[in-house]
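Hi P.,

Sorry for the delay on this. The queue was packed all week, but I finally got your sequence through. Input first:
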Amino acid sequence: MRMSGITVTVATDHGHNIEADVRRGTAQADVVLLPADMVAALTAEGLVAADGQGALGKVGIGAVARAGAPLPQVGTMDGLRGALQTASSVLVTRAPTGEHMLRVIAQLGLAEAVAAKLVQFDTATLLIKHLAAEGDAAALGFSPAAEILVWRDRGVAFAGPLPDEIQVALPYAAAMLTRTRASESALALLGFLATPQARTRFHESGVV
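Then the structure:
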């Protein structure tokens, strides 16, 4: 990382896949960034170091639309209901974010109306790539806000966060694997991630 002076190779995957790789011993990593509950479970199993981790912040759920399309008003319950009803397709993940959105859709009494236009993806990255490449102007997706902001100016636009009444902010943490052979560099990276400089970058990327 240029700001920290630490050489870092970054790879991304679904959180559940990373968690499984750590358990299998096949994770090609020294430090993992995962939802805090996964880090806690891996800590209890002795797979990540209890004294080598730190909180990163929370990531809420946001709505994503095709770039250039009119942005739906999703910041209120009425606005969200209307956006779901008028969307040509509703895109969600098979991850916890998508599971939560399915519950919200049912809570709004729209499960039947949305079912015919619901499209599910294994990851938020696949959802957003599809929307950027193939989605039409009336398509509406839901993803962790940080995932959407990564794709700014690349074919999609952030329509805004979910209403407070149904928002879920998932806490994330960084943790060093106990089997790492680069503990000194890993701990230095974790220390950098806790600095105000790093926190500012996290905030800009949707981690609060």
